[in-house]
C-alpha cells in the first residue's frame, strides 16, 4: 500500500497535535471525503500536526477492549506512529451508528477513560491529563445525546468555521493555563458546538458558501494491488452539499440544508490543481445529489476533457437521459446507481420521490442500450404505511426490469430496512421495530428472496436476514436514543457488543427498548437541531 500526499510534521515545531480518527478500518475510512477534507484543513495550520488513526487491519476485534489481547501499539497513528493518548486532541469523524462500539473500543484500548466524567475526575484528583475527545459527522448532527457521555465536545453541522474558532481557544487553553471548565465555557460560545457537561443549546453550524470549504488539492490517495480498493485511489471533489428534494427519510435533506452548490469556476480550478499536484486516474464527485448541480453536464465534460475517469454516487432517476448517459459512457463509468426505494408509486410519492414506474423502466431501457451494462438499485422495506401488497409491488417491478433483457446479474438489488433518523419527518416511524412486528420484516425479506432468486438479471445483495433486521433495530435506537440509551449501549459494549448483548443489557438495567420505541412513537424526542 502506497499513499501519496501524506503530511508528516516535526512535533518539535508545533503547538499542539490532533489525532484524526475514523472508527473503522483504513479502507472504509479512506473512502470518506470527510477524512481527506479534515486532514487537509487541520494540517493547513502550520502549528498543528494532524495524523490519522484507524482500527487495526486484519484483526478480529474482541469487545470490550479489556478482553482483547492484541497490543495497544496497533492503534498508533499512520504518520509518526504516535499512540492515541499522546495527542492533545482526538477527533472522531462519526458517520454510522454501527461504529458506536468501535469508538469505545478505541478509547479503552488506548487506556483512556471512556466517559468525560471519568477523565475529569482523574484530572482533578491526579492532575493527569488525557486528550480532549471531540466528535462530529452526520450521526452527531442528527443526535449527539447517545454519544454525550463519552465526548468532551461535539460539533453540530458544518465544522469548517467552528474548528478554526475552537483551535484558537485551545491554543489559549494550552498557553495561558486556563482550567478545563473555563476552557469549555469559552468553547460553548462557538456556533455549532455542544458541550455535554454544560448541556448548552447548540445551533447547527451552516457553511453558507461551499466555495469557502477548500477542496483538498494535495489529497491522500492510496495505491493498492487489491481489486476492491476502488475509492482509496480516487480524487474526491465535493460539488454540492445538502439535497433540494427533501425525501422524508433522508438525513442529508434535513441535517445538511440548505442545498448549496460549489461554483463551476471553483470546481474547474480544483480539477486542474488536483491534476497538477496529485497522481490519480479517477475523480469521484461528492454530494447527496450531484446531478442537481446546474453545471453537472459541464463538470463531467471538463473532467473527461482533462483525461480523467469519473465516478458518481447515486443519481436522481429523473435526471437521467440519453445525453447524460452518453457523457457517463465517455467517463468510462461501468455501473449507474439509482434508488427507486419502493415498487409502489404511492409509497414513493409519499417519500418525496415523484417518479412513476414508467419513468424508471424508460431510464433502465436507455441504460441497457448503452455501454453501461450494470445498474445498482436501492429499495427500502419497513416504510410507514407499508402493506403486504407493497412487497408484491417491488417483486412485480423487478420482474419488469428482468424482462428488459439485461445480462446475467447486471441488476444488483440492495433491499434495506428503513431506519428512522432523528430530526427528519419520519423520525417517529418505528412501528416495524417494535418486538411484536420484527417477524413481519423477516417474512417480507423471505418473500422477496423466494420470488426473486430465479430472475436471471437480478442479483440480490442481502444475506442473513435476521442479522440485517436486528442490526437495523440497533441503528434505530442509537439514532433515536437519549441518556438511558447511552447507558444501555455502554452495557451492551461491556457485554461483548454482539446483538444478543442488547437483551442482556435490557435485563441488567431493567430497561425496555420496546417501551422506549413506543415513547418515540408517541412523539417524545431527545434532541432537536
Number of helices: 19
- How many strands appear in the DSSP assignment? 17
**Mean pLDDT reading:** 94
If strands are numbered along the chain, what order do they take across the biggest sheet?
A: 3-2-4-5-6-7
Largest sheet: 6 strands, mixed
> Helicity level, as a percent range?
25-40%
Shape: globular
**Would you give the CATH topology of the domain at 2-194?**
Rossmann fold
Q: What percentage of amino acids are in beta strands?
A: 15-25%
Low-confidence parts? none
Q: CA-to-CA gap between the ends?
A: 41 Å
Using only C-alpha atoms, the radius of gyration works out to 24 Å
CATH architecture of the domain at 2-194: 3-Layer(aba) Sandwich
Amino acid at each position: 500500500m502506497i499513499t501519496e500526499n501524506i503530511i508528516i510534521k516535526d512535533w518539535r515545531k508545533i503547538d499542539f497535535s490532533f489525532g484524526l480518527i475514523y472508527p473503522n478500518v483504513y479502507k472504509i475510512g479512506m473512502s470518506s471525503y470527510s477524512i481527506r477534507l479534515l486532514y487537509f484543513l487541520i494540517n493547513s495550520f502550520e502549528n498543528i500536526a494532524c495524523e490519522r488513526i484507524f482500527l487495526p487491519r486484519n484483526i478480529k476485534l474482541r469487545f470490550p477492549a479489556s478482553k482483547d489481547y492484541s497490543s495497544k501499539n496497533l492503534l498508533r497513528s499512520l504518520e509518526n506512529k504516535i499512540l492515541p493518548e499522546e495527542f492533545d486532541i482526538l477527533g472522531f469523524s462519526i458517520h454510522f451508528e454501527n461504529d458506536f462500539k468501535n469508538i469505545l473500543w478505541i478509547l479503552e484500548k488506548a487506556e483512556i477513560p471512556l466517559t468525560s466524567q471519568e477523565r475529569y475526575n482523574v484530572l482533578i484528583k491526579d492532575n493527569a491529563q488525557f486528550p480532549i475527545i471531540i466528535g462530529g459527522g452526520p450521526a452527531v448532527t442528527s443526535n449527539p445525546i447517545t454519544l454525550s457521555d463519552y465526548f468532551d465536545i461535539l460539533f453540530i453541522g458544518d465544522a469548517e468555521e467552528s474548528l478554526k474558532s475552537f483551535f484558537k481557544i485551545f491554543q489559549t487553553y494550552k498557553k495561558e493555563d486556563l482550567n478545563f471548565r473555563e476552557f469549555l465555557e469559552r468553547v460553548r460560545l462557538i456556533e455549532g458546538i455542544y458541550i455535554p457537561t454544560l448541556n448548552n443549546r447548540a445551533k447547527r453550524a451552516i457553511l453558507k458558501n461551499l466555495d469557502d470549504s477548500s477542496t483538498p488539492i494535495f489529497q491522500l490517495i492510496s495505491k493498492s494491488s487489491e481489486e476492491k480498493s476502488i475509492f482509496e485511489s480516487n480524487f474526491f471533489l465535493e460539488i454540492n452539499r445538502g439535497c433540494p428534494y427533501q425525501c422524508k427519510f433522508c438525513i442529508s435533506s434535513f441535517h445538511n440544508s440548505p442545498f448549496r452548490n460549489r461554483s463551476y469556476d471553483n470546481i474547474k480550478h480544483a480539477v486542474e490543481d488536483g491534476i497538477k499536484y496529485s497522481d490519480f486516474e479517477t475523480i469521484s464527485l461528492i454530494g447527496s445529489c450531484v446531478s442537481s448541480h446546474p453545471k453537472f453536464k459541464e463538470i463531467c465534460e471538463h473532467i473527461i476533457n482533462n483525461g480523467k475517469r469519473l465516478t458518481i454516487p447515486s443519481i436522481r432517476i429523473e435526471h437521467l437521459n440519453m445525453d447524460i448517459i452518453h457523457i457517463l459512457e465517455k467517463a468510462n463509468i461501468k455501473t449507474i446507481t439509482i434508488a427507486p426505494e419502493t415498487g409502489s408509486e404511492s409509497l414513493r410519492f409519499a417519500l418525496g420521490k415523484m417518479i412513476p414506474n414508467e419513468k424508471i423502466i424508460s431510464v433502465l431501457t436507455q441504460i441497457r442500450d448503452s455501454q453501461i451494462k450494470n445498474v445498482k438499485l436501492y429499495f427500502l422495506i419497513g416504510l410507514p404505511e407499508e402493506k403486504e401488497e407493497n412487497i408484491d409491488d417491488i417483486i412485480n417491478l423487478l420482474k419488469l426490469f428482468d424482462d428488459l433483457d439485461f445480462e446475467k446479474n447486471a441488476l444488483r438489488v440492495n433491499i434495506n430496512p428503513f431506519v428512522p433518523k432523528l430530526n427528519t419527518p419520519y423520525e417517529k416511524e418505528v412501528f416495524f421495530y417494535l418486538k411484536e412486528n420484527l417477524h413481519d420484516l423477516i417474512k417480507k425479506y423471505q418473500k422477496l428472496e423466494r420470488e426473486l432468486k430465479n430472475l436471471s438479471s437480478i442479483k440480490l445483495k442481502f444475506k442473513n436476514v435476521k442479522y440485517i433486521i436486528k442490526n437495523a433495530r440497533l441503528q434505530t435506537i442509537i439514532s433515536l436514543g437519549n441518556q438511558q440509551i447511552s447507558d444501555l449501549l455502554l452495557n451492551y459494549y461491556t457485554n461483548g457488543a454482539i446483538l444478543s448483548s442488547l437483551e442482556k443489557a435490557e435485563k441488567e438495567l431493567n430497561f425496555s427498548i420496546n417501551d422506549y420505541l413506543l415513547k418515540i412513537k408517541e412523539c417524545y424526542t431527545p434532541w432537536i437541531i
